[in-house]
């Protein structure tokens, strides 16, 4: 039986990388999925490929009014929202000595503020069914240090997840964070720090990067009723790095 049969899900940053894999698996498992991204061409093409259970909405996750529109369009097209995957994010390699405030705030808005806005926007819809699963994609750098800006925001996602889980539990809404390690996505392959990443992979106990599909299977678990008593928790998928 499909693990997400008839569940309505929003996945941000769904046009490529991990978000694309989440969307593919969710549709395969019976969900009705709204894909959002700033990349309209890729997002629309993916939604068309996935069929009638997928809808693409061009969306800047830092725009509060945009979030309201996404929720309204999702409800109009598919019904009340069951799942939110806050997947959109960026991973620049900043230096605390050289980065400008504008550089820093761009990361904060996309990686941190968007998660707050997304959670806030879907709560009224999830309250209608007295249930819901919010999955916030953090990073292993939400547990251990990394680049300035990226690390800070991923720690913040971890904290927001716990605070939201405590506040929203009585509505039946679960909130969990996922902490991937080095995932073999287009973002990683294009990273200015690719050589450093390859060196890092040599020190991963499992000796490889993860495939995005491996992360998607964990996200699927959290979205499904199989995780019905998991909330406010950190789910680590890093090949053993933080062990």
From TrEMBL:
The keyword Oxidoreductase applies. It comes from the Bacteria. GO terms for biological process: bile acid metabolic process. InterPro entries: NAD(P)-bd_dom_sf, SDR_fam. Keywords: Oxidoreductase. The keyword Oxidoreductase applies. GO terms for molecular function: oxidoreductase activity. NCBIfam families: PRK07231.1. Belongs to the short-chain dehydrogenases/reductases (SDR) family. This is 3-alpha-(Or 20-beta)-hydroxysteroid dehydrogenase. It comes from Loigolactobacillus rennini DSM 20253.
């Amino acid at each position: 039986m499909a693990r997400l049969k008839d569940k309505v899900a929003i996945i941000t940053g769904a046009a490529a990388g991990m978000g694309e894999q989440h969307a593919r698996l969710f549709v395969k498992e019976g969900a009705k999925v709204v894909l959002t991204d700033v990349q309209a061409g890729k997002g629309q093409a993916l939604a068309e490929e996935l069929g009638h259970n997928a809808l693409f909405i061009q969306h800047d996750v830092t725009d509060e009014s945009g979030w309201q529109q996404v929720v309204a369009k999702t409800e109009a097209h598919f019904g009340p929202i069951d799942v939110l995957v806050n997947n959109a994010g960026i991973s620049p390699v900043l230096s605390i000595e050289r980065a400008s405030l504008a550089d820093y705030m761009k990361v904060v808005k996309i990686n941190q503020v968007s998660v707050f806005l997304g959670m806030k926007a879907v709560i009224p819809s999830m309250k209608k069914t007295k249930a819901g699963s919010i999955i916030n994609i953090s990073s292993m750098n939400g547990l251990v240090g990394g680049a300035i800006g990226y690390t800070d925001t991923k720690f913040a996602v971890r904290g927001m997840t716990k605070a939201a889980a405590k506040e929203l539990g009585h509505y039946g809404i679960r909130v969990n964070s996922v902490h991937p390690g080095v995932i073999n996505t287009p973002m990683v392959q294009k990273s200015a720090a690719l050589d450093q990443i390859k060196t890092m992979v040599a020190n991963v106990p499992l000796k490889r990067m993860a495939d995005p599909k491996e992360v998607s299977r964990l996200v699927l678990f959290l979205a499904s009723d199989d995780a019905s008593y998991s909330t406010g928790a950190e789910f680590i998928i890093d090949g053993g790095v933080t062990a």
